[in-house]
């Protein structure tokens, strides 16, 4: 073998080895969501309660398998397919007719710019007083069978929560209280402005207005043509976030068939969670309950930020909200139903000796946020309405999202603080003037700074300990404040004054602004490529390219 041919063979071999996909980049590991039968949670046992405790204090997500015969007050005369667990199939058939054609509906383009969400919004007061769906509109646009399916979906979720999950959660809390304070002791979970307190999660939910949404997501190719023949792309439709409220109860999503020759819907695998201990991205797999002979339906329960931050659970039961995201494939249609369980308007969600913050105040402060990148939406105006049966109230339920996730969700003139986008304080000075004076904008609690004179403690009061991200804590007392730049404290204005002026104007903070500067060279083991399975490490790519250049010289 001649030398050039030998070099060529070695180069080809090295390129093949070094440009192989990095392990873990091609696909996330799967997380099989723990599944309980209704009987297991209803009766309880040490094994069941230990497992449930472990889940609620780690990932915060579980599923409950509800026998369709278990449904209290079910009416088989509603539909010939009342034992069919695919109660979301009707949404597939009429997803083009959802949105503004139905009272309480809306169409919304998500932040990725290519995923359209069509919604029917409604609500339930307490656990047993649902606002009726707009039957006439749904029957006209989707058919009477779909209307009955949607009502059954509501009933399945309501029963799973009221008859199974809430009693089990209250049992866990009562057991933890008894083990630490004695069997006769009571424990206040959530205080109210009238001096009374809630001592069970069931009593909290019964006094709240809980939001419901039916969603149909459709993700189109970025070329904006449905006839484009490119390979399908899977990426984020809903970016990583933690939901507001106490918990979300939902039917795991389904993916609609795209061809008439295959009318069946299939299980959805687009839901991802982040494990709090490792921050590892995991693809959530729910129990499969869609076969024609199956007499069960799966209802998922996922804890929200309210359970983690508002409830005064025993220290031995630190509930954990689920951080999650949705990745959809181009041209998929995904249907989903869920109910976000909230707290009463007079519940105190932040205990403060100077000014306790109620849920009504918290949601009012949330109302200016304009993003809607979650499975649910929280509307301050709608929840404040007095006429809970009015069409105005139902339309308002689709409202605005209650929080954002990071600085990248904010506009160029806003900065991330208390899970919101807040404007720069008006003090007569421009951003550039503050930066030139050696100051940074910090999300902090002013009362803590006044009391302690410690900027670190003030910033920590607005930082979620589980993520370490400044401004990620739902603390109404947090706000953006200019302070002398302090090493080690996170500020979203750091680095802005180091930008080249012809790229970014720090006075206007235009669309090109960014609080950080991207690295010039990629990390040596970072994946590079087009985001699909063909990802290579930067080191391998650079090495292989260098070998090829040397080979050219030798040849």
What does this structure look like?
The protein has 555 residues and is α+β, with helices and mostly antiparallel strands. The chain has 2 domains: 32-341, Jelly Rolls; 411-498, no CATH class. The chain is 27% helix and 24% strand. The strands form 7 sheets. Strands 2, 3, 4, 5, 6, 9, 11, 12, 15 and 17 form a 10-stranded mixed sheet that branches. The chain starts with a helix and ends with a helix. The model is unreliable at 10-26, 70-84, 224-229, 368-373, 377-402 and 499-545 (pLDDT under 50).
Topology:
Blueprint: H1 3-18, E1 29-32, E2 35-37, H2 38-43, H3 46-56, E3 61-67, H4 89-93, E4 105-109, E5 115-125, E6 129-130, H5 135-142, H6 144-181, E7 190-191, E8 197-198, H7 201-206, E9 209-219, E10 234-242, E11 247-255, E12 266-267, E13 271-274, E14 281-285, E15 296-303, H8 305-309, E16 323-329, E17 333-341, E18 348-350, E19 357-358, H9 359-366, H10 380-383, H11 391-396, E20 414-417, E21 420-423, H12 431-436, E22 439-445, H13 446-452, H14 455-460, E23 478-484, E24 527-529, E25 535-537, H15 538-554
Parallel strand pairs: 1-14, 2-3
Antiparallel strand pairs: 3-15, 4-5, 5-6, 5-9, 7-8, 9-17, 10-16, 11-12, 11-15, 11-17, 13-14, 13-16, 18-19, 20-21, 22-23, 24-25
Helix pairs in contact: 1-15, 5-6
């Amino acid at each position: 073998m001649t030398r050039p041919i030998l070099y060529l063979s070695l180069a080809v071999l090295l390129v093949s080895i070094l440009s192989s996909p990095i392990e873990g980049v091609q696909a996330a590991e799967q997380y099989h969501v723990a599944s309980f039968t209704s009987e297991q949670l209803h009766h309880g046992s040490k094994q069941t309660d230990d497992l449930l405790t472990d889940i609620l204090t780690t990932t915060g997500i579980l599923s409950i398998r509800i026998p369709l015969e278990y449904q209290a007050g079910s009416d088989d005369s509603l539909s010939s397919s009342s034992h069919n667990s695919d109660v979301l199939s009707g949404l597939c058939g009429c997803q083009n007719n959802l949105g503004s054609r139905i009272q309480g509906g809306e169409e919304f383009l998500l932040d990725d710019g290519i995923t359209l969400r069509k919604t029917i919004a409604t609500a339930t007061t307490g656990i047993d007083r649902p606002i009726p769906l707009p039957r006439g509109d749904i029957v006209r646009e989707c058919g009477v069978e779909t209307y009955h399916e949607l009502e059954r979906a509501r009933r399945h979720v309501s029963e799973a929560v009221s008859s199974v999950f809430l009693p089990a959660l209250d049992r866990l809390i009562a057991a933890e209280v008894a083990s630490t304070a004695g069997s006769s002791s009571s424990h206040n979970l959530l205080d109210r402005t009238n001096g009374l307190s809630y001592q069970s999660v069931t009593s909290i939910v019964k006094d709240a207005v809980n939001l419901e949404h039916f969603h149909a997501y459709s993700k189109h190719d970025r070329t904006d043509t449905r006839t484009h023949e490119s390979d399908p792309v899977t990426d984020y439709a809903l970016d990583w976030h933690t939901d507001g409220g106490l918990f979300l109860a939902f039917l795991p999503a389904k993916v609609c068939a795209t061809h008439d020759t295959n009318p069946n819907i299939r299980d959805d695998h687009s839901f991802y969670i982040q494990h709090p201990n490792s921050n590892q991205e995991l693809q959530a797999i729910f129990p499969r309950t869609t076969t024609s002979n199956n007499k069960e339906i799966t209802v998922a329960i996922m804890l929200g930020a309210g359970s983690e931050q508002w409830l005064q659970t025993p220290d031995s039961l630190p509930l954990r909200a689920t951080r999650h995201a949705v990745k959809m494939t181009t041209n998929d249609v995904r249907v989903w139903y869920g109910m976000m369980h909230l707290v009463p308007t007079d519940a105190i969600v932040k205990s403060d000796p100077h000014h306790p913050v109620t849920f009504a105040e918290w949601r009012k402060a949330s109302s200016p946020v304009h993003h809607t990148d979650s499975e649910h939406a929280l509307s301050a105006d709608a929840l404040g309405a007095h006429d809970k049966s009015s069409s105005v109230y139902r339309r308002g339920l689709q409202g605005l999202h209650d929080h954002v996730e990071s600085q990248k969700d904010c506009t160029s003139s806003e900065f991330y603080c208390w899970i919101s986008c807040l404007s720069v304080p008006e003090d007569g000075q421009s951003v550039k003037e503050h930066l030139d004076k050696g100051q940074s904008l910090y999300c902090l609690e002013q009362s803590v700074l006044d009391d302690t004179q410690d900027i670190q403690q003030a910033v920590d009061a607005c930082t979620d300990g589980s993520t370490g991200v400044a401004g990620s804590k739902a603390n109404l007392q947090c706000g953006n404040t200019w302070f002398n730049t302090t090493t080690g404290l996170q500020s979203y204005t750091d680095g802005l004054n180091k930008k080249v002026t012809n790229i970014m104007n720090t006075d206007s903070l235009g669309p090109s602004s960014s609080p950080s500067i991207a690295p010039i060279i990629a990390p040596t083991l970072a994946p590079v490529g087009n985001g699909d399975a063909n990802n290579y490490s930067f080191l391998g790519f650079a090495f292989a390219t260098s070998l090829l250049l040397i080979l050219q010289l030798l040849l």
